[in-house]
Amino acid sequence: MLRRITRTAVLCVAALVLARSCFAQTNAASAEDDKSTLHVYVNLVQIPVLVLNRSLRPIPHIPDNNFKVTIDGLGQIHPARIRMEGEDPINVTLLVDRSVKDDTLWNDLPKSLEPLIESLRSRDHISFLGMDGCTARRFGPEMAPFDAEWLKQTAKAVTDMVPFKSLGKKQACPKPISYWELVVYAASKLSQFPGRKILVTLGPGDTLNPQFAKQVHGLLTGNSITLFPIVHGSTLIGAGLPFGSNFDMGALQVMANQAELSGGMLLGTSYRDFGKTLAQPVELARARYIIEFPRPDKLPPGTHYIQVADGHPHDFIRPAGISVPIAGSNEKQDPTVEHGPLMTTEAPAVDSGGTSNTSSQGDIKGNPAVVVAPQTPAPPVSSPASAVSNAVQSAPKSPQPDPTDITDDLQHPR
Fold it and tell me: How far is C-alpha 262 from the chain's CA centre?
C-alpha cells in the first residue's frame, strides 16, 4: 500500500540538492606574534545512500565495484571508499503535528518509544518539536544527548498538547501554523549540528506552494538532512480502503517527494506497528552506504546532477545531500591555502544505460539525480568545526520538559 503511493508520487520530480560549503578549519600559530592562518579545504565528498530492494528492505553487502557515480552524466567516478553508516552518531529531531483533532495515533507516542530507544546510542542526540495548529513549541534544548527517561517524559509532554481547533476558543488564531513552516524551523536548527541528521515528522502534512517547496528542498538537501514523514496507513491508497477524513492527496505527494529527494521516504503506520515504524528511520539510516570520493577538479560553482547506481535498475536508491567545498579564485592563488588532492574525471562516457535508469523526471524505479550547487565558502571562522561538536556534547539534559514557544521564530511562506 505504502510502496504503491510512494512509487507513484515522485514520477515527475527532478532532484535538487543545494550543497553547503564546509567549514574552513583554521590552525593558528603558537607564537603570540605570529598571526598567520592556514586555510585547509577538504576535497573529500561524502554521499549517504539509501539502497532498498523491491520489498523496501535494506540490501547489505553490495560489492564496492557495483557502485557507479556520475556527475552531469559525464564520466564515471570510482569511489575512493565505501562503507556502511553503521554506528555513526545521529542527530534526530521528532516533529509532532497535533493540529488535527482526531489524530489520535500520536497519543500512543510515549508507550511506543521502546523500539526507537533501542535503536539509539549514547552518542546520538535528539530534539522534540510540537505544534497545535496555532502555537509551535520546542520541548527541552535544541539538541540533547540521548537519554531514555528524558525522551519518555518529553513525549508525554508533547502528546498532552491539545489541538487549537478543539479548544472551543472564540478568538481566532492570529497566525495559523503549517506543517512545512515547522519543518523549515527544524531543518534550520538541525543544520547547525555536525554528523548525520534525520528529521522525523508525525502528522498528516500539508500542501506546499512551489516557491516555499524550493526553500524546503534546498534547506534539507543542502544540509544533508534526511526527511522521514510518518503518516496513518489508513490515509494511503489500498484495496478497498477509503481515504481518511483528513486525507489530502496533494499533501501526501509533497511529503513523499521531499522525503525521497532528501534521501528518505514516506512511511505509513498503524496502531499495531507504530513503535516499529518510529524506529525505522534510524534503522534505515544505519543501513545506508557512505560513498566517498575526491571532489572532481573541474566542478565549478553551479548546479550539477549526481547519480548513484548499484547495477540493479529496480533497486530503490536515494542519495542524501552532500557537501562540496569550493575555494574562491583569490584563495586558489593564496600560498597559505592548502587544497589537497583533486581527482580528474574520466572522459565523457558513451550512453551505456547507466544514466538511462534516471531521467530528469526522477523515475522511481531508477536512481533520481541529485543536484549540487557548490558555493564559494564564507570567510574562515575562528573556531574549528570540532567546537560545534563539543557544543552538542555539552547540551544540557532536561529532567522535566520545559516547553518553549517558538511560534515567532517560524518562517511563513511568501
Answer: 5
